Amino acid sequence: MTLKRLFLLFILTPIAALFAASSLFGTLQEPQFQTRLELYQTNIVLQAQAWQTTDSGDDSAQAIREAILGDQPLESATDKYQETRQSVQTNLAKVQSQLAQLRSKNQVPAPPKPLPEVPPTTNASSFEKEQQLEQSQQKMQKFLDELDLQLGILQAKQGKTDTALKTWSELQQRLETNSQLSGFGNSDSTETTKTQTPSQSASTTQETAAVLSGLWSDPPRLLPDAQPVIQNNLSGWFRSTALIQLYQLQQRQAALSEVQTAQQETAAQAVFKLAVIGTFPALAALVGVILLIFLIAQRLLKGKESLLAQNADLPWTTPWDGETILQVFIVGFFFMGQIFVPALLLLLPIPRPLGDVRLQAVSVLVSYLLVALGALLVMYFSLKQFFPLPRLWFKLQLRDNWFLWGFGGYCAALPIVVVVSLINQQLWQGQGGSNPLLQLALESQDFVALGIFYVTAAIAAPLFEEVLFRGFLLPSLTKYLPVWGAILASGLLFAIAHLSLSEVLPLTALGIVLGVVYTRSRNLLAPMLLHSLWNSGTLISLFLLGSGN
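Request: output the structure for the sequence above.
Response:
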């Protein structure tokens, strides 16, 4: 065995595996992006339910409204908020328990005689873990407080005033208790700046809860700064609902009419957004279900003559061995993406953190292009000795049925990934982290930044990832595995490469569909189209959801 092979197998590969495992399990305490996304959609439903047509007797408009919003949108939104609150509270308790255990281990009584010091790496690791848990605790606590404010408004709007008042009262008591405990735990002046922002946030939430309690009390209690508190600390449907309640109590008809008019305009926009978000994916998913039924039935009836059996058992002729596969992925993908490119970017004279969303978008695109370029160069030089490559390798052919395979694969992937995602949510209970690019795209309403994010996610990512995972990895694995085994293995590695624990199952399902499409079509343009359609649909939905919140 050569020195190069020993170094690759016993040093670089274990390092990459440990890093991937550490990164995956590091996302265990991070909230899932899907939870926030579902609340964003719930908030748009709340905005849309205020929509009223000019003709109250228009049955078609009423039918459209019910089809988009459902029969009881307020009750459904309340259930969703309560479900999310329960999930956040459960995960918060887990984090608090882990934090308490970690602190108890660190607080060991001083021994009577000097003992060897704990290695610095151990101390640093323990300190970093405690910091991560504290940050997770603060984020979850703030999220829980926001949920209680909004949940109380939902309850009050449904006439459950006593329940709403109880929700806000318990929130105020919890914030007061946490404030006292924080004060005892941070008496050192050096910690003041670290706790200033959470304290201010808690104070603002307390003030908002007091204003809302006053609005729905009997008799009402109108605080002098109620209007600016509502405008600054609430958003969307919750803000307009609280302002309407305030202006009605103050008998300010002009201000009330203005808010109601704005609410109707926002409601009409929300209905349109929900129609776009729901209609096109739903139609595509319906086509996908029909297509899946057809393909499975055809496979059962026609056997090897069916579309699903096309090229199903035909492996690629692979002239290289496992060492080359490892070299491309460990050196090209892992070290380029996780070590070399990040180190290179750190050397650039760029102010950090990047506050401007356009700069963040450009940074993400440049980083991705550098990673892709590095990995593709390593792959090129690794395979150069085998040129010319055997037939079917990296095939890109325009005159083919790749479009039907790509679009059909997208439709078929929708119901499959949706079902897997529902199971996945129950498994992780709102935790497990998410792709940070999705959060940036959701919260950014800058068209230039969104355009750059689109280039990254819907053009650069499909081109690079399909060349690497479907074009190189999947065919290479057919040297050691049957085609179906190569599809499963490449799909799993595709999911793990995204380094987010909660996304492993859904992305594995997507990766399997991509693998099936590629092995049957034998044209890389097909999975590239599928991948691009998938990411495009996600980004458009994020933009519409973000613009409504």
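Residues 26-103+127-182+196-274 form one domain.
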